Amino acid sequence: MNKNDLQMLGFEIVAYSGDARSSLLSLLKEIRSGDFSNVESKLQEADENLKLAHNSQTQVLSNEANGEDLELGFIFIHGQDHLMTTLLLRDLVQDFIELYQEKYR
Q: Residue 78 catalytic?
C-alpha cells in the first residue's frame, strides 16, 4: 500500500465519519426539541457510515498487521481523528437520547 492509497483511505474515513457526525448532530438538535421520530433512522444512518469508515481503517490495520511498512501521512491521521471523535459523539448522543426521553415523558 503506497502513500496515495493511504491518503485515499484517509479521505474515505474523513468523509464517512463526517457524514455520520452530521447525522448525529442533526439528531441531537431534534431530540433537544422533543422530536424523537427520526431516532432509529438517523442512528442507523450514522452507524452505517461509521461501519464504512471502520472498514477503510481496517484495510490499513490489516496491511500493517501483515508486516507491511506503511508511510502514514497527515490525511490518514486526520481521518483517524475524525473517526474516533465521531465514535465518541455516537456514544454521547445515545445517552442524550435517553436523557431527553425521560425529560419529555
A: yes
* Torsion angle defined by CA atoms of residues 100, 85, 45 and 50, in that order, rounded to the nearest 10 degrees: -140
Crossing angle between the packed helical segments 3-32 and 74-104, to the nearest 10 degrees: 20
CB-CB contact of 34 with 64 (8 Å): no
Residue 100: closest CA among 34, 45, 20 = 34
Residue 54 · residue 87 · CB < 8 Å: no
Q: What percent of the chain has pLDDT over 90?
A: 90
Task: Give per-residue burial for 63-81: e unless 16+ CB within 10 Å, then b.
Answer: beeeeeeeeeeebbeebbe
Q: What angle do CA 23, 29, 35 make, to 5 degrees?
A: 100
Smallest CA-to-CA distance from 37 within 49, 48, 26 is with: 26
Distance CA 77, CA 55 (A): 15
Check 7, 25, 48, 78 and give the catalytic one.
78
Query: Is-above-0.90 flag for pTM?
Result: yes
